[in-house]
Amino acid sequence: MKISTKGRYALRMMLEFALHPGECTKINQVAERQQISDKYLEQIVTILSRAGYVKSMRGAQGGYYLTKEPADYTVGMILRLTEGSLAPVACMEDELNQCVRSGHCATLTVWKQLDQAINGVVDSITLADLVEEQKKLDGDSYDS
User: Fold this and answer.
1) Whole-structure pTM over 0.85, yes or no?
2) What is the rounded CA–CA span in Å between residue 9 and residue 31?
3) Considering the domain 5-84+127-137 in this protein, what is its CATH number?
4) Which of the residues 69, 83, 103, 123 has the least number of beta carbons within 10 Å of its own beta carbon?
5) Closest by alpha carbon to 48, among 115, 25, 133, 135?
6) Domain spans of the chain?
7) Which DSSP letter does residue 68 get?
8) Sign of the C-alpha dihedral, residues 143, 80, 9, 118?
């Protein structure tokens, strides 16, 4: 499994919004701080907005903001929204689309354990956790 730029950038964008609570953040601000194309971020923010993760505000002070508290978003939620399945192998992506060999496949045990480990990690880390980590890395230079 490899996380695409869309998933990585969506997570970085959500972190930017979380780092600036109570204010709207413009796409060009995120693009500049994260060194990402603003055109690509516009595509990603549309996905986040349609899912209800962010809202936009028009006007001179406009931009985007989180619809919930950072602690209410997990890394897993954001990655599944942008990436789809996080399953390590295709035969585990859809429970209805089981491989005909699944009852006789010893390697399926490995893939199930890997899937549980991946989900355990991404579902246990919230945006609030990443905000705290970013503040440590930046010397707590963000407003609370």
Assistant:
1) yes
2) 10
3) 1.10.10.10
4) 103
5) 25
6) 5-84+127-137
7) S
8) positive
